[in-house]
């Protein structure tokens, strides 16, 4: 059995993250992201659940998740998982699609699991450049080629909102979003929405594809990511997102993202240091000053 490794690299040019998970056995709970995920299974089999459908993801498969797509996965056999992929923010994706199609809009893709050897090869080549922190513009070319292939073969209309739901479910979501830093109980949500516990659980899960508790935990982890990216400590991020216990926060964050809060923060600290150094170099060389 090889050692488990988890790496994330932020690319300033592409405004996206590349991640690489090797030797993974852990299941990933039902959750969603606020950004696009385009991933590649390099080794292992996973039983994948996405938006009410079940898939068997195997070596060579591409996984595509839109913002808001609820999904989970678990080990299918004894072989560990090797998985690489990209996290692309919505504003970055909009700008890329604008360049490719002339329309600044969020794209939709017809499949969450894609079997396409040519596209998989393109994704792997791009990912290797990002993980190596390559500064050549070849990575930009490869990203455009990757998205162009996906758009040409699998594009469909994209609806940014999670499927429309009843007013009570919208109120439940709003209540959780406004109380991320506080303990939240099912009873509080029920009082706020006027629904009974059983009715709320059935209606919420039917409309969102995820339970209220898992929805709340996902909101908290997404908020914690942003705080860590801003340089806040894991302790601060835990307290400001309603996790009273540090180990509970660390376990949840790692189960959702595949990397610990401290390691995630370090990635963005290095990014901030690089930007500061770049700014100093510009000032020293007089970049941007006319006639100097």
Element layout with pairings:
Elements: E1 5-11, E2 16-24, E3 28-31, E4 36-43, E5 46-50, E6 53-57, E7 62-65, E8 71-75, E9 81-88, H1 90-101, E10 108-109, E11 113-114, H2 117-131, H3 138-154, E12 155-156, H4 167-178, H5 186-193, H6 197-208, H7 212-229, H8 234-240, H9 246-257, H10 261-285
Antiparallel strand pairs: 1-2, 2-9, 3-8, 4-7, 4-9, 5-6, 5-8, 7-11, 10-12
Description:
It is a single chain. The protein has 292 residues and is of the alpha+beta class. Helices cover 47% and strands 21% of the residues. It contains 10 helices and 12 strands. The strands form 3 sheets. The protein has a 6-stranded antiparallel β-sheet with strand order 1-2-9-4-7-11. Strands 3-8-5-6 form a 4-stranded antiparallel β-sheet. Helix 2 (117-131) runs antiparallel to helix 3, helix 4 crosses helix 5 (186-193) and helix 4 (167-178) runs parallel beside helix 7. The longest helix has 25 residues, at 261-285. The chain is globular. The relative contact order is 0.12.
What are the key terms here?
single chain; 292 residues; alpha+beta; 4-stranded antiparallel sheet; 12 strands; disordered C terminus
Mean pLDDT: 86
What is the percent of helical residues? 40-55%
Radius of gyration: 20 Å
Order of the strands making up the biggest sheet: 1-2-9-4-7-11
InterPro entries: AraC-bd, AraC_XylS_family_regulators, Homeodomain-like_sf, HTH-like, HTH_AraC, RmlC-like_jellyroll
Pfam families: AraC_binding (PF02311), HTH_18 (PF12833)
GO molecular function, one term: DNA-binding transcription factor activity
Protein name: AraC family transcriptional regulator
């Amino acid at each position: 059995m090889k050692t488990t490794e988890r790496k994330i690299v932020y690319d300033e040019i592409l405004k996206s993250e590349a991640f690489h998970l090797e030797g993974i056995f852990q299941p990933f709970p039902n959750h969603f992201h606020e950004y696009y995920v385009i991933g590649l299974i390099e080794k292992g089999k996973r039983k994948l659940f996405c938006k009410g459908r079940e898939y068997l993801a195997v070596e060579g498969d591409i996984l595509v998740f839109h913002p808001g797509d609820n999904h989970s996965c678990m080990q299918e056999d004894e072989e560990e998982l090797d998985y690489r992929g990209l996290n692309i923010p919505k504003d970055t994706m909009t700008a890329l699609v604008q360049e490719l199609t002339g329309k600044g809009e969020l794209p939709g893709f017809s499949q969450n699991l894609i079997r396409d050897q040519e596209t998989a090869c393109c994704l792997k080549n791009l990912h290797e450049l990002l993980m190596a922190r390559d500064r050549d513009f070849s990575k930009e070319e490869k990203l455009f080629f990757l998205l162009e292939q996906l758009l040409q073969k699998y594009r469909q209309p994209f609806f940014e909102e999670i499927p429309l739901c009843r007013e009570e479910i919208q109120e439940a979501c709003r209540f959780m979003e406004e109380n991320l830093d506080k303990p939240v109980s099912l009873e509080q949500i029920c009082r706020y929405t006027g629904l009974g516990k059983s009715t709320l659980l059935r209606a919420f899960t039917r409309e969102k594809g995820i339970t209220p508790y898992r929805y709340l935990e996902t909101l908290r982890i997404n908020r914690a990511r942003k705080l860590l990216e801003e340089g806040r400590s894991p302790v601060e991020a835990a307290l400001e997102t309603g996790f009273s216990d540090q180990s509970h926060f660390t376990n949840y964050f790692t189960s959702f993202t595949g990397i610990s809060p401290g390691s995630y923060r370090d990635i963005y600290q290095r990014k901030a240091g690089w930007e500061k150094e770049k700014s100093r170099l510009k000032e020293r060389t007089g970049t941007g000053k006319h006639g100097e």
